[in-house]
């Protein structure tokens, strides 16, 4: 009697596992939304896949970033790519453009030197310094 109960419970558990697995697999095979009919696209006679010059899209040229001018007090170099300055009461970080970065040491900047510079704000909202001049 005890063996029959054990066998019944084992079969019941196996049946539930099989039902669960089949139901789980069906969830992934069914379409996510509504109708699963393939879309049929027919080309009408006389139509061409080529677009006329008026219809072709010309890639937009990226906008040149707006050149901005600034003055600040040089605080120090954070790393090879960035410096920290003090503008008024706030501290700002500026990335160095390659043309500045390559010759940054030639500016001989010391802490608290006043500087004048040109910069732009890049797509990552970072200020990028493009010109630098030490003020007397």
Explain what this protein looks like in three dimensions:
- With 136 residues, this protein is of the alpha+beta class.
- It has a domain at 68-134: Nucleic acid-binding proteins (OB fold (Dihydrolipoamide Acetyltransferase, E2P)), CATH 2.40.50.
- The chain contains 2 helices and 5 strands; from the N terminus they run H-E-E-E-H-E-E.
- Residues 29-47 have a biased composition (Basic and acidic residues).
Give the topology, please:
Elements: H1 2-29, E1 68-79, E2 82-87, E3 90-96, H2 98-101, E4 114-121, E5 127-134
Parallel strand pairs: 3-5
Antiparallel strand pairs: 1-2, 1-4, 2-3, 4-5
Main attributes?
136 residues; alpha+beta; OB fold (Dihydrolipoamide Acetyltransferase, E2P); 5-stranded mixed β-barrel; 2 helices; elongated
- Residue share in helix: 10-25%
Beta strands, count: 5
What radius of gyration results from the CA coordinates? Answer: 34 Å
**Looking at this structure, what is the CATH superfamily of the domain at 68-134?**
Nucleic acid-binding proteins
CATH architecture of the domain at 68-134: Beta Barrel
Residue share in β-strands: 25-35%
Task: Look at the structure and give the CATH class of the domain at 68-134.
Answer: Mainly Beta
CATH topology of the domain at 68-134: the name is: OB fold (Dihydrolipoamide Acetyltransferase, E2P)
Mind summarizing the main beta sheet?
Answer: 5 strands, mixed, barrel
Dominant shape:
elongated
Task: Give me the strand/helix succession.
Answer: HEEEHEE
Rounded average pLDDT: 82
- Low-pLDDT residue intervals, each spanning 5 or more residues: none
Biased composition (Basic and acidic residues): 29-47
Region (Disordered): 29-71
Biased composition (Acidic residues): 48-64
